[in-house]
Amino acid sequence: MLKKNKVPLSRRVEILSLFQRYTEGLSTLPASALLMFLCKEQMELTANKDTAEDLIDRYEIEETAVESRCMTFEGFLRFMESKDCCVFNRSHKTVYQDMDQPLTSYFISTSHNTYLTGDQLVGKSHLDAYVSALRKGCRCLEIDCWDGPDTEPVVYHGYTLTTKILFKDVIRTVEQHAFEVSAYPVILSLENHCCEAQQQVMAKYLTSILGDKLLKSPLDHPTTGDLPSPNDLMYKILIKNKKLKSQIRREDKTEESADEGEDADADDEDEDEEDDEYSIQFRAMFWSPRKMGSKNKHCHSVKFNLVSLNGTDQKEKVALHKDLSDLVIYTRSVKFISFCHSRDNQNCYENTSMAEKKARKLMKSSGSSFIHHNQRFLSRIYPAGSRTSSSNYNPQEFWNVGAQLVALNFQSPGLSMDLNNGRFQDNGGCGYVLKPAVLMSRERNFDPNTSYRYLKPIQLVLKVISGSNLPVIKSRNTLDPFVRVEIHGIAFDSRSKSTHIVKNNSLTPHWDTDMNFSITVPELCLVRFCVRDQMTLFKSEFVGQYTLPFTSLKKGYRWVPLLSRQGCSLDPASLFVLVLY
User: Which residues contact 257 (CB under 8 A, 6 or more apart)?
Assistant: First the structure.
């Protein structure tokens, strides 16, 4: 139960002050006084006498105190340094949300170009990238598929010098690690550039390697009337790709639709990404403008969208092989045209992808319509092609309109991945987080750009009291630390405040700084604690951070764990704070 072996002096003094406030001159804390502390300071409103006595049994080691149902200061200190007093709500460490809603009702942890370990132009592709993403709770992985030698499809970032890995090895890796940390469904988002012959090989690998884990047909009795729920699809892997238009019976009439591979609306994210002018210029540097030839007779219908040196391109159209098409059940990729078109024509099992620039434009001009669209359909947002260094956008702006599949470059640490990791540590880290009611109401026209005017804000009061055992940057012997607290939510709620700088103190910096935040949509907010080292007057460096949903924030006196830039624990480094709202 111990968080650390040795508590810094300042933290010990702060906790001793709390202890003495409730002992009223006695040397130990009676169970009744401990209960009062839990209710009044920690806001544990469901606590009762049994709760207090259970804490004494768990944290007190002095037998006479246990027998008299009291807690010594050392026991109280162990309790205050335990996970029971962490700022993150422990009950949210396991799956606690309703998992019987349609897939559209959840934020889903999503990776972009999952195979890459570096940049988008010359970076290395590696199977470990898939393992890492899955172990972080990612539930939607991207696989860019291209024709390889000896009829072996390969995975890499097309038209670049990124290295290649075999498609079959990717699928084997997914099969081995898909459900290590979460039982809920994995979506394989295929960006398919292969000829029909190699698509058939892909389908063969998917079925033979994934076996019963692969969803091959619709469920007989889904628990919802829309898309199936995460519970319906536990331990299943879904294929997200384009699909041949099948025979559809409407009013006892059957009509055969055109092959989507040759149809004008056959599209996924490729067109939008290729439209990015910056991406076109870079791809032209790395790829010949000549049309690729193929010796395979099955590839006659494939035309590759190659970028010519003068900036024009020839349209890529990939005819789908039936075997691969048949594996697409609930996640068929279609082109986004407009919200009105989707409302009138899109089926619940069809989803769209769009680049961040297009999504941002729609978010700003039609926020409410975007939210209503995402109540019915899955939307995937991906980074602009110009992000060749694998940088990320801020995912919060697209969660604000209910986009489920907000894809990030998992290999790139920083603010964006901190927010993603913070969002998805909720609900047991299972990779599925239920969207708040404000995004799911079909009667209410919520718009993150304007609705704040009509909402009553709550007041979040944070006192950043102190820090302990902060890691020292190698090039320096000490720190000049300060803490920046950031609120990430709708634009009106997003802001940050900082403590003052404490000079030359990494072990026990003391700030005792009050911060007040007015928040109109707390259920969408993330709170980020970031410790920085003031290097010069205008320059500071990252030391550690911790991000969590506002809805997982515990009230009272709490300690905040700190994580490195890569998301690893910096224990025993932590902050000590008081949270009120």
Answer: 245, 246, 247, 248
Residue 23 is encoded by which pair of tokens?
Answer: 């002992």
Q: Are 325 and 244 in contact (CB under 8 A)?
A: yes
Q: CA–CA separation, 451 vs 566, rounded Å?
A: 36
And the tokens for 266?
Answer: 């056959």
Identify the sign of the CA torsion 89, 93, 94, 95.
positive
Tell me the two tokens of residue 220. Answer: 């007989």
In which element (H, E) is residue 381 found?
strand 379-382
- Report the b/e string of 353-370 with b at 16+ CB within 10 A: bbbbbebbebbeebbbbb
Q: What percent of the chain has pLDDT over 90?
A: 81
Cα distance between residue 297 and residue 184, in whole Å: 40
Q: Summarize the chain as % helix, strand, coil (round to 5).
A: 30, 25, 45
Q: Which residues contact 359 (CB under 8 A, 6 or more apart)?
A: 379, 381, 398, 403
Average pLDDT over residues 280-305: 46
Is residue 88 classed exposed, middle or buried when 0-12, 13-18 and 19+ CB atoms within 10 A define those classes? Answer: buried
Query: What tokens were used for 348?
Result: 């619940």
The DSSP letter of residue 69 is T
Structure token pair of residue 202: 């892909």
- Nearest residue to 91 via CA among 553, 437, 464: 553
Would you state the pLDDT for residue 280? 57
Do residues 81 and 2 touch, judged by C-beta distance below 8 A?
yes
| pLDDT beyond 50 at 314 | no
Q: What is the pLDDT at residue 8?
A: 62
- The dihedral built from the CA positions of residue 462, 465, 471 and 473, taken in this order, carries a sign that is positive
Residue 499 CA from chain centroid, whole number: 28
Using the predicted structure, report yes or no on whether residue 194 has a pLDDT greater than 60: yes
pTM here is 0.90
Mean pLDDT of 62-67: 97
* Cα distance between residue 156 and residue 193, in whole Å: 11
The answer, yes or no, to whether residue 501 has pLDDT greater than 80, is yes
pLDDT of residue 476: 79
Q: Quick one: three-class SS letters along 87-113? A: CECHHHHCCCCCCCCCHHHEEECEECC
* Residue given tokens 């949509």 in the structure block: 521
Mean pLDDT calculated for residue range 112-139? 98
Q: Which residues contact 12 (CB under 8 A, 6 or more apart)?
A: 77
Residue that is written with structure tokens 């030359």 in the block: 504
Q: Is 484 exposed, middle or buried (0-12, 13-18, 19+ CB in 10 A)?
A: middle
Phi then psi for residue 289, to 5 deg, are -80, -5
- Measured in degrees and rounded to the nearest 5, phi and psi for residue 460 equal -100, 120
Calculate the average pLDDT of the chain.
Answer: 89
Contact indicator for 395, 413 with CB cutoff of 8 Å: no
Active-site annotation, residues: 112, 157
Say which residue the tokens 């349609």 belong to: 102
Q: What is the DSSP string of 352-404?
A: EEEEHHHHHHHHHH-HHHHHHHHHHS-EEEE--TT-TT-----THHHHTTT-S
